[in-house]
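Lab notebook, bench 4. Still working through the backlog of constructs that have no structural model yet. Next entry is a single chain of 301 residues. Request: give me the structure tokens for it.
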Amino acid sequence: MSGFQLNAVPVLSRTTLDRAEHLRSDEQALKEGWGQAKLVRMNKRGQVRIENGTVVLDLATTLAAEPSPAAVFLGVDGDIHLWAVRDNDIEGELADLRAVGATLELDDFGTGLLSTAIALLNWHDKAGFSAADGTPTALSSGGWSRTSESGHEEFPRIDPAVICLIHDGGDRVLLARQHTWPEGLFSLLAGFVEAGESLERCVEREIREEVGVDVREIRYLGSQPWPFPRSLMLGFAAVADPEQPLTFHDGEIAEAHWFSRTEVRAALAAGAWGVKSDARLLLPGSISIARTIVESWAATE
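Model written out:
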């Protein structure tokens, strides 16, 4: 029972976006492609304009006649170049990537497009000055790096985090709720990897800190980008003793409970977070790797 695997690729890991890395430093090619290029406009909340459930892509020339120093190159769709820009003045019907499966009916290409745009634009918002010498930086390589006045080049930062399904080796799973979440909303335990720490030791430490439980048989399951603002979620499963008392040491967790496989299956059938319900258990939406991990465990006979 402890050997389950993911039964699907997490939603944000399914991207079919062609990032066309070879074009990033080819200023002439980017300039030539700009005339027919498409542009994603995204505000600081990660929202984009939608029509009929799909993302609106503007012509890049509505932003500028030539590649703008404010825009980032995402990749290509066939021969069409794809760019993104921060635009806090966009109007109309807006939605963000978390709405996938609800407001937005995006395919793998669309989710990859938005997740890449969010991650890059979030990094640029915080990287205006060099971490090496403090001088101002400017976009370079189509937005995939920033270069300071002294010539120091920096690349997008990604914060690795572990997320772990804890089970008893049988039909029970441990789920937790943070203080900021509404009643009934539970998910897997997660935390950021610290400097000098392996992923497995991070799993042990985070779970012990958050719920006071010791885990064993730690296994890697899969990964998913999580650009809120710039994480990479690394999914694991581990076994724990349900008789060990739960203690909440770091203050992040409001409550945690062991749930049966039957309860989890019923919660999965009921929908995801945001569904109006007085049920004891509601689970994350489809965009999260947590949902994929829970579904995979629940499907195990």
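Notes after review: The first strand starts at residue 38 and ends at 42. DSSP finds five helices and 16 strands in the chain. Flag for follow-up if needed.
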